[in-house]
Amino acid sequence: MRFWIESAHQSLVETGSDVIRTFQSEEQFFAVVVSGSGIGYSVLEIARIADETMSRLEQKTPLSKVVETMLVALPEGKHVPFSILQVLGGTRGNLVECDAPPLFIARSGDLVLLPVVEEEAHGRLIRQGEFSLQDGDHLAMVSEGYIRAKGWSRSWGWRDIATSIRRLTETRCDAEQLLGALIRSYERLSQGKAARDVSILAMFVRPLRTVMVWSGPPASPPSVTPAPSARGREEVMLEKLMNEPGARIICGDTTAEIAARLLGAELEMEPRPEDGWMEVPPVSRLRGRPGIERVDLITEGLVTLGKARERMAEAQRARDLPRKEDGATRLARMLLTADKTHFLVGQAVNPAQAADKAGTVPMRRAVIEDLMRDLKVRGKIVSVEYF
Q1: Closest Cα partner for 304 from 381, 384, 371?
Q2: pLDDT tens readout for residues 80-123
Q3: From edge to edge, which strands make up the β-sheet containing 210-215?
Q4: What is the pairing mode between strands 28-35 and 18-24?
Q5: What is each CA distance from 304 to 113, 278, 326, 329, 331, in whole angstroms?
Q6: How far is CA 53 from CA 59, 91, 144, 283, in A?
Q7: 158: region left, alpha or beta (phi > 0 left; psi from -120 to 50 alpha)
Q8: Tens-place pLDDT, residues 142-178
Q9: Coil, helix or strand at residue 28
């Protein structure tokens, strides 16, 4: 099972000089937190250091070399706390902390104490450790201002915060919910007197959520000899969809008819939702023989895809979407919930729905490519195959 590191962060002082950067692919996750409070550096200069560090990590530079380069780049004699978290395969964690607050990890509500090794490098105290992550783990990295809250003392630390939010973490709260809990804990400790710079990065380890979307019948390229039959390409697309272990979606009436024919099933219109079909055409489902393969959502094509993009533009996350059950809202909800989305796009052109004057590019392709850009901006993993 592949894991995903869900993350959310917030700086409580907008004019501060804390910088948080995250990057995630299917294979790895990185988080960098740098605080430049009190060193006379602008936030832009601190951001440059953080961005260069993140760039090296994305280029798969060994972590030890990344840390060495970062230590050399820091202003000599200045206190610049930073933390770097690297997670490989969703489970193998590597942590480097330089004069920074320790990483917070809660597992089923209990604080996890990490084994770390301390050493001095370039006149700075470095803590390093390797550890394993599990499904349901909650993590947090904070700037130094967080632990300088008025009420923080030897009698109050991460263990006390883990205890105070135990019930929340026991119920598998997401990263944003954990972030909210940590902010409230800080506010209680600071008694309303904020430190100069306070930033929090909250994380939650959970299984990777995937979805595959098939839209449009395939076209047989005339340049291929012998040209593959359209039926053969339909079977390839259906097989790919049915091999998807996560959510499966079909967008398009013709596409749905192809799937029903190949599966030996019938299409049945779902009951009319309370908000009706004024904006979005009806949703269908497959009916047929016992044990028929699962398809989670079957919608109309072009109109529904366009409306789903509009719904997504008005929401930061799935929970922000309207409480509707029309095809566009359900499609938007599934796309925003997924971490990884793969599109199967048929290139057959309906002359009435062409994206170019020559009539060679289907409109669905242009709409789906817009959707893909929107998802990538949100940090989603997105891929596509054209048929």
Answers
A1: 371
A2: 899 999 999 999 999 999 999 999 999 999 999 999 999 999 98
A3: 265-269, 284-288, 297-299, 247-251, 210-215, 340-345, 381-386
A4: antiparallel
A5: 49, 12, 9, 9, 8
A6: 10, 22, 19, 47
A7: alpha
A8: 988 888 777 677 667 898 899 999 999 999 999 999 9
A9: strand
Token digits of residue 11: 């700086």
The whole-angstrom separation of Cα 370 and Cα 305 is 10
| pLDDT at residue 196 tops 70 | no
Give residue limits of the domains in the chain: 3-207, 210-386
Section 361-374 average pLDDT: 93
Question: pTM score, two decimals?
Answer: 0.88
Name every residue whose Cβ is closer than 8 Å to that of residue 285 and which is 6 or more positions away in sequence. 267, 268, 270, 295, 298
**Separation of first and last alpha carbons in the chain:** 29
Do the Cβ atoms of 304 and 328 come closer than 8 Å? yes
69 touches 41 (CB < 8 A)? no
Nearest to 93 by CA among 217, 207, 5, 158: 5
pLDDT band at 334 (very low <50, low <70, confident <90, very high): very high
Fold assignment, 3-207: Phosphatase 2c; domain 1 (3.60.40)
- Residue whose tokens read 């409480």: 323
Distance separating alpha carbons of residues 321 and 373, to the nearest angstrom: 19
